[in-house]
Write a structure and sequence with these properties.
Largest sheet: 9 strands, mixed
Bound molecules: zinc ion
Order of helices and strands: EHEEEEEEEHEEEHE
Shape: elongated
Distance between the termini: 29 Å
Oligomer: single chain
Helix content: 10-25%
Length: 206
């Protein structure tokens, strides 16, 4: 049975600067249909949110949160080690992360998480249950992590990754983790592993 843990991560102001996400989408400047400069205003249809509205063709552009999908790939006795990737791209180049990235059109969350794991780590693995859902409201993202069981310790990381390696809990470079959602997911993973029961964790971050 899956337990749902609700957590609210109220970051202190210090944490805010430390974990500021750098993947903000800039405001839309030009109409996606005709290229005219857009203006942010309330549309004429009674909508109560400001949208990017084109003054020429009147297209209203709706911008909605994006899904980031990834895995917690584990190896060893009871999943004692977790695979992390050292980022070769901005933001947070040189920091460690779980394999994850933006979901693409035409794929499910699980397929996207598997694709990112393949692209970033070149790992052989078997997908398991959904493990964490983190709302990152400040940047309009939802991060979803699945557990995955590694089938080999040979990794063939792609261009987005400098290095892919396994870490036991005591080896995790906590101060060098690229994103707060990854840090929280790793903490939940090792806590659940100690309990011998993996739950689904739902959290809100900033
Ligand atoms: Zn237009």
């Amino acid at each position: 049975m899956t337990l749902i843990t609700l957590l609210t991560c109220a970051a202190s102001s210090g944490d805010q600067s430390r974990y500021t996400y750098l993947m903000h989408r800039p405001p839309l400047k030009h109409c996606r249909v005709c290229g005219t400069a857009v203006a942010y205003r309330l549309p004429d249809d009674g909508d109560t949110r400001e949208r990017a509205v084109c003054p020429a063709c009147h297209t209203v552009h709706y911008e909605n949160p994006l899904n980031v999908v990834g895995t917690v790939p584990v190896w060893g006795e009871g999943g004692a080690q977790v695979l992390l990737c050292k980022r070769n791209i901005e933001p947070r180049r040189g920091k460690w992360t779980l394999p994850a990235g933006f979901m693409e059109m035409g794929e499910t969350t699980s397929q996207g998480a598997a694709r990112e794991t393949d692209e970033e780590a070149g790992a052989r693995f078997e997908m398991q249950e959904l493990f964490a859902i983190m709302n990152v409201v400040s940047v309009g993202q939802v991060h979803l992590f699945y557990r995955a069981r590694l089938l080999s310790t040979e990794f063939n990381p792609g261009h987005e990754t400098l290095e892919a390696r396994l870490f036991a809990e005591h080896e995790i470079p906590w101060e060098e983790i690229a994103f707060r959602t990854v840090r929280e997911t790793l903490k939940h993973y090792f806590a659940d592993r100690r309990k011998g029961n993996f739950a689904l964790h739902v959290g809100d971050i900033g």
